Amino acid sequence: MTALLEARGLGFGHPGHPVGQGVSLALRAGEVVALLGPNGGGKTTLLKTLLGLLPAQGGTLALQGRPLADWPVPERARLLGYVPQGQASTFGYSARQMVLMGRTAHLGLLARPGARDHAVADEALARLGIAHLAERSVHRMSGGERQLVLIARALAQQPRAVLLDEPTASLDFGNQGLVMTAIGTLARQGLGVLFSTHDPNQALRCAHTALLLREGRVLAQGPVAGVVNAQALGALYGAPVSASGGQGGLPVFLPGLG
């Protein structure tokens, strides 16, 4: 199967400031890829490079087999959805208003959303099970509900793939579950999903493949069951990691107890 998004030997960073190099990965329809690594390891910079928000500093990067840099920005935005980290709205937009912002890539300059755009926004809300929140202000939602609205906004672009930067950061345990369930739903609906996280348990239970990134360098990658283990995680985070028994034969990883 042809990859939706594929990097080979990718170098990434900010202008005049390299962060990492040699990253190769492929994201396919219906697949979930987890990007694991410590703070400052380059995860966000890598995501922004994969999206074309930062220029690649080496290697190749292709979207649907075509160099990413060759895609006009509006066309690229229709194929790649992005959920940034920790984004909050100053204004009390309703969920539907927030999701409608995802239709920008399909509208002309100064154009107003039409009936088709409203229908797509409502469908995005329904796909994530939050249609009942359509008229509620984002200021009157839980953290998990707000994060689902941001994912719905990305879905309103009608992308082929969605990239999420630490989508469960600062969420409580229950809201983390809402977001991770949504990620699984998107993959089952045929989207490619790549998310970054600090939690190896999320990666093990929700992803098909994992990439472990430390100081801009790939320590390991491959099928999640073979990559996410106590030894690899200890090297990744520079701290002891222990594994205890969990449900369904999957271990639960805990820090500092090795």
Keywords:
single chain, alpha/beta, Rossmann fold, six-stranded mixed sheet, 9 helices, 27% strand
Walk me through the structure.
- It is a single chain.
- The protein has one domain (5-255): Rossmann fold (3-Layer(aba) Sandwich).
- The protein has a six-stranded mixed β-sheet with strand order 6-7-8-3-9-10, sandwiched between helices. A four-stranded antiparallel β-sheet has the order 2-1-4-5, with helices on one face.
- With 258 residues, it is an alpha/beta fold.
- The protein has helices at 43-50, 73-79, 95-100, 115-127, 143-155, 173-188, 200-206, 224-227, 230-237; strands spanning 5-14, 17-27, 32-36, 58-63, 66-67, 80-83, 161-164, 192-197, 209-214, 217-223, 241-244, 252-255.
- The mean pLDDT is 92.
Give a short overview.
This protein is of the alpha/beta class and 258 residues long. The protein has helices at residues 43-50, 73-79, 95-100, 115-127, 143-155, 173-188, 200-206, 224-227, 230-237, and strands at residues 5-14, 17-27, 32-36, 58-63, 66-67, 80-83, 161-164, 192-197, 209-214, 217-223, 241-244, 252-255. The chain has a single domain, classed as Rossmann fold.
